[in-house]
Amino acid sequence: MNGSTAHQSGVAVQVRGLQKSFNGHLVLQGIDLDVAPGEIFVIMGPSGSGKSVLLKHIIGLETPDAGDIQINGQPIQAEGVMDQYRLAMVFQSGALLNSLTVGENVGLYLREHRLKPEKEIARIVGEKLELVGLKGLESRMPSDLSGGMKKRVAIARALAIEPQLILYDEPTSELDPLMAVTIAEEILNLKSRIHVTSIVVSHDRDLALGVADHIAMINQGKILAIGTPEEIKKISDPLIQKFLTVEFQKEKAL
Description:
By secondary structure, this protein is of the alpha/beta class. Helices cover 35% and strands 24% of the residues. 39% of the residues are buried.
């Protein structure tokens, strides 16, 4: 999503009383969050706790049963609000278009909206692919890629629009440790370079503690705690401590 009035700076996100049910099952139970412009906000919790559903609400892919989400103080459900900002989401599956090459996937938004001349799009595509370790693979098809490579292409595609808000759903899943570090570094680089706001759902303890300004611990659709990495590590709640232990880390491999 993009608008000509957008500026290269992060946006503020506010979530209040967010509730969502699917088939009578309450997935989000009154979520409250405040994400400051330009910060990296990580959401951690076990599988099925509502993390990905929350992300989809923030970017407007789901409509809440109750509650409110605002970007820079504007309700996202209001007409035209989502068109004012550059927002990108990296889905856990990658969500690439299989009929397009890697390069075409990465440059798709820029090309469709005629945001850059073709030569500049090609330069940006190459730059972002190199950043995620896929230099020179512009002509490859998604069907030729591993799951981890598809994730990296999806991240490059999101980065190509220099977003004001980027949401990552398990950005380091299916990646080897070295590439996971590369992705973490790029999340940090975006913050320093264009002050982008990043909301990251992750099981990756090292990623969360390494990049987050604040971490929200969520379980069964409720926020258990919000704090800086140091504050979260000091909370004595046994469930929160479990999230930060090897036992919890094993869950992400299941």
